Amino acid sequence: MSQTSSTRIAFIGGGNMASAIIGGLIARGLPAAQITVVEPFEAARTALKAKFGIDALPAASDALAGVDLVVWAVKPQTFKDAAAPVAAYTANALHLSVAAGITTDSIALWLGTGRIVRAMPNTPALVGKGMTGLFARAEVNAEGKALIERVIGTTGQFVWVDAEDKLDAVTALSGSGPAYVFLFLEAMTQAGVDMGLSAEQAYQLAVATFQGASELAARSEEPASVLRERVTSKGGTTYAALTHMQANQVPEHFIAAMRKAETRAKELAAEFGK
């Protein structure tokens, strides 16, 4: 964060996602003294003090005046009520929302500014392996986007989308995606136990397989279909498993499930943005 050495950042909400970003910023050299957190729950304030040495505020105050960036890490249903007291001090700030489902039109209305970037992160951000989708309104300039990239980059990778509604697809794919992986891990572990392995052995094998296959895909210039075909000999063990999945339309059901997540993301945006 050398390029943001004088940057002042405020976090509205001090939960897990905020802590992940704060930890990344401090690890990259941003002094904790340049970070302000507003967190209404005492237990969370205590945790922030213990972990980062930050004295979080129970409510918005003039301590927010002059901050360069406000990171909104609040629950969607509390965003609107939290916005008014913060807006009074942050008229000139850039705003980054990691609140699921809240559109930038709603945020702009509540905050009185269009300098807003909306993010859709995922939980691997907690271990620096996150994948975040980003959308910037037209009012955000290149300098603002660069600041957002440095902040979000502390939690993993990111991609920019050129239309806000594409964040619903990001939500369905990577935002909710870790849960899909965990479901597969559960199923693979159970299958391993059913075949005589211990639960610990089966889980270790399953997790390492996902890690290794993902790394292989990330490093390869070839598509997943080619990588799959390479380990699928006709008449072999992998072929037996995959043909069973395909016969039962597992890929089609998986795609349909993700479309359900996309639809729900749109519904939540309509619900929380009122």
UniProtKB/TrEMBL annotation:
Main location: cytoplasm
Enzyme Commission identifier(s): 1.5.1.2
GO biological process, one term: L-proline biosynthetic process
Catalytically driven reaction(s): L-proline + NAD(+) = (S)-1-pyrroline-5-carboxylate + NADH + 2 H(+); L-proline + NADP(+) = (S)-1-pyrroline-5-carboxylate + NADPH + 2 H(+)
Pfam families tied to this protein: F420_oxidored, P5CR_dimer
Domain annotation Pyrroline-5-carboxylate reductase catalytic N-terminal: ranges: 8-101
Pathway recorded for this protein: Amino-acid biosynthesis; L-proline biosynthesis; L-proline from L-glutamate 5-semialdehyde: step 1/1
GO cellular component: cytoplasm
GO molecular function annotation: pyrroline-5-carboxylate reductase activity
Keywords recorded for this protein, A-Z: Amino-acid biosynthesis, Cytoplasm, NADP, Oxidoreductase, Proline biosynthesis
NCBIfam families for this protein: proC
Record family assignment: Belongs to the pyrroline-5-carboxylate reductase family.
Name this protein carries in UniProt: Pyrroline-5-carboxylate reductase
Originating organism: Comamonas kerstersii
Gene that specifies this protein: proC
